[in-house]
Amino acid sequence: EQLDLYLNNKTGRLATSGASSGLLSLPQLASTLYTSGTALQTNFVGPAEQYALIARGLATGEVAQELIIEGGISPQFSNDSTLLFRASTPGNFISVLGVLQHPFSRGSVHIRSRDATMHPEVDPRYLSHPADLQLLKIIALHLQAVAKTPPLSALLQGGGTVYQPGYHRLTAENVERWIRAAAQSEYHPCGTAAMLPRAKGGVVDERFRVYGVSNLRVVDASVFPLIPRANTQSLVYAIAERAAEFIKRAA
């Protein structure tokens, strides 16, 4: 039925995209909801150069965060991604999502055994850096404001004030609790074997060779020194082609 609607009239579910998205800078968001720069007032620790790059980009507007309007996504089930598209009640709903494209928190991946079949120990350490929580507060409250603003509000019941059961209006008092309960990954894991100088915590050199090990290269998203500004797949293709050239030259 849906295929017929699309083929004959270019209407129906197949005529829509998976999501509509836009990129907003921190100054755009902070000037609306908070005094500018409050999200950056924290003591950065750890990989100082990475933090400095991200902080500068956020402050100047060079780095953007993403706003996505999805249909049928239910963050209420964020602990189980298989339930992400299952609404808690019948009806027509949309989800307005915000993505922290450049988090400050850093996780880790470590092997636990010489047995290659044993899964590694993965600790994403979400929200371990205080700046991430502050940024997500700004984003979450802005998303709520977007839903109440024309022209989107004209398409929503109550002008964007009617919530699916299980959800509620976000305030300065409850937004942190909601973020901690509903936040989830954007599924762009990378950077656990970064291409950096060894003295700066790098794992591979500019030819993808692992420091301290002979004849071993790593060629995947783990070598990214920073989280990219878009989906990771295209960059994986690029580094794979580059690494293939190095491997052929060394053969």
Structure in words:
Keywords: FAD, Flavoprotein, Oxidoreductase. Its cofactor is FAD. Belongs to the GMC oxidoreductase family. Residues 103-240 form the Glucose-methanol-choline oxidoreductase C-terminal domain. This is Glucose-methanol-choline oxidoreductase C-terminal domain-containing protein. The protein is built from six helices and five strands. It has two domains: 2-182, Glucose Oxidase, domain 3 (2-Layer Sandwich), CATH 3.30.560; 198-250, no CATH class. The strands form two sheets. It has a three-stranded antiparallel β-sheet with strand order 1-2-3. Helix 2 (26-33) crosses helix 4. The relative contact order is 0.11. With 251 residues, the chain is of the alpha+beta class. It is globular and about 65 Å long. Helices cover 29% and strands 11% of the residues. The model is unreliable at 32-42 (pLDDT under 50). The chain has helices at residues 2-9, 26-33, 48-60, 130-147, 175-182, 233-250, and strands at residues 19-25, 64-71, 94-99, 108-110, 121-123.
Layout of secondary structure:
Layout: H1 2-9, E1 19-25, H2 26-33, H3 48-60, E2 64-71, E3 94-99, E4 108-110, E5 121-123, H4 130-147, H5 175-182, H6 233-250
Antiparallel strand pairs: 1-2, 2-3, 4-5
Helix pairs in contact: 2-4
GO molecular function: flavin adenine dinucleotide binding; oxidoreductase activity, acting on CH-OH group of donors
Keywords: FAD, Flavoprotein, Oxidoreductase
Protein name: Glucose-methanol-choline oxidoreductase C-terminal domain-containing protein
